[in-house]
């Protein structure tokens, strides 16, 4: 990259509530840090899988510039998402001042070559490891690099907490895969690991707080009862929830003092 990316300016490109701009800004700053480990050059043609509301998309488009392009893919229904749907968020970005062309799709494009394919905090949304492997193999046919970023299941800061998984759930977190397992799947698909690093997120990134708050909600316990049929497995999930609650006792500020766990950032060729 030539000029440093401006987190504040890029954050304003995404659809957000003005009173919560600090949240949007911290998310954008996080994506910029991840991007610095991938070395995406201006003018690149990039494929992004699991683009969601476009927080990563705007950073990628800003990095590749007007000579580059981004194809952003998300299979979710366009009316999915809150407080803004995918349709609203994607339309807002497309109608904004970004000079880089952005195409929003619901499935992988066929036959189009890319310099790089990015999956940033979207791998746990896959329904199974088999689907991750299938996707990695499909990407290999059309992309020179595979760029991954996912929660590392490890923490540098003592206030970081592992995120709890909602077992057999249709929510966002469906398949928890460690960096080691993701690397194994990528290698099985024909990729070679070029570099990897664990990055400690800034304090302003609130994903850890959101995940911890979610497991203490009434909805979480009801979902566990509904989806985890085996009594022993259900006991394990609820015991892990209780362990998270106990761990908050030594964190200053309790749940509000929780920091997000480290992020694994990798480059495959």
Account of the 3D structure:
By secondary structure, the protein is α/β, with parallel strands linked by helices. The protein has nine helices and seven strands. It has helices at residues 7-11, 21-36, 55-64, 86-94, 129-140, 179-188, 207-215, 218-227, 231-247, and strands spanning 45-49, 69-73, 102-105, 114-120, 143-151, 193-199, 263-268. The chain has a seven-stranded mixed β-sheet with strand order 3-2-1-4-5-7-6, with helices on both faces. Helix 4 (86-94) links the parallel strand 2 (69-73) and strand 3 (102-105). Helix 2 (21-36) crosses helix 3 (55-64) and helix 5 packs across helix 6 (179-188).
Short descriptors:
globular, 9 helices, 269 residues, seven-stranded mixed beta sheet, alpha/beta
The ordered H/E elements are HHEHEHEEHEHEHHHE
Please provide the count of β strands.
7
Neighbour order of strands in the largest sheet:
3-2-1-4-5-7-6
| Gross geometry | globular
Structural class: alpha/beta
Mean pLDDT: 88
What's the Cα radius of gyration?
Answer: 19 Å
Beta content: 15-25%
Low-confidence stretches: 162-170
Helical segment count: 9
Distance between the termini: 19 Å
Relative helix content? 25-40%
* Biggest sheet character: 7 strands, mixed
List the helices and strands and how they pair.
Elements: H1 7-11, H2 21-36, E1 45-49, H3 55-64, E2 69-73, H4 86-94, E3 102-105, E4 114-120, H5 129-140, E5 143-151, H6 179-188, E6 193-199, H7 207-215, H8 218-227, H9 231-247, E7 263-268
Parallel strand pairs: 1-2, 1-4, 2-3, 4-5
Antiparallel strand pairs: 5-7, 6-7
Helix pairs in contact: 2-3, 5-6
